[in-house]
Amino acid sequence: MATLATIFDRFTSPRTIELPAPRARFLEPEDPFAVPAFPNEDIYFYVKRIANSNVARVADPAARKTCWRMIGYSFVLAMLVISLLLPTLYERMAGYRMEALRQEKERLELDRAALELQETKLESPARLEELARMQRFVDPAPESVVYLDTKSDRILAKK
After folding, report:
1. How many other C-beta atoms are found inside a 10 Å radius of the C-beta of residue 149?
2. What b/e string do you get for 117-134 counting C-beta neighbours within 10 Å, with b at 16 or more?
3. What is Dmax (Cα atoms) for the chain?
4. What is the pLDDT of residues 141-153, one digit of tens each?
5. CB burial class (10 A; 0-12, 13-18, 19+) of residue 108?
């Protein structure tokens, strides 16, 4: 299996070093639990910690200008995308509003039908007779009925 380290070893290793002879299997007793050697296991990587706390950063005016320009372009691009998506969003919101109004219209029509039915039940002659009997309304005597004549106001003046 080739790793990056073994590939680089081909280019960096000196040519004068002879490779060790392969192990003869018949001379060594074979250990069934022995782990095979890993490639480049003799290499040790040392990590050196670098402290940059004493290093002062040099200000670059061109980088600052470029950064602000990029922020401006990003803002303009975002506004352009928003303005392109705004009609679609408005259309979708109008569709939701129309559907809500349609459902409210259906609900109001059902309420109106229920109120008309209730009004019809309350104004039925049988119910009005029942209410008259409960409140002890009586029909007037024929002699106490006054018929209004629109041509003469004498009848109204007597009373």
Report:
1. 10
2. eeeeeeeeeeeeeeeeee
3. 151
4. 888 888 876 666 6
5. exposed
Residue 17 contacts residue 50 (beta carbons within 8 Å):
no
Cα three-residue angle 37-39-44, rounded to 5 degrees: 105
Contact 39, 1 (CB under 8 A): yes
Q: Is the pTM of this model over 0.85?
A: no
pLDDT digits (tens, 9 = 90+) for 101-113: 999 999 999 999 9
How many CA atoms, within 13 angstroms, populate the side-chain half-sphere of residue 87?
2
Type of residue at 107: R
Dist CA 47 CA 40 (whole Å): 18
Q: Are 144 and 137 in contact (CB under 8 A)?
A: no
Determine the distance from the C-alpha atom of residue 39 to the mean position of all C-alpha atoms in its chain, rounded to a whole number: 52
Give the separation between CA 101 and CA 99, rounded to whole angstroms: 5
Q: Are 73 and 39 in contact (CB under 8 A)?
A: no
Q: How far apart are the first and last CA of the chain?
A: 127
User: Coil, helix or strand for 42?
Assistant: coil
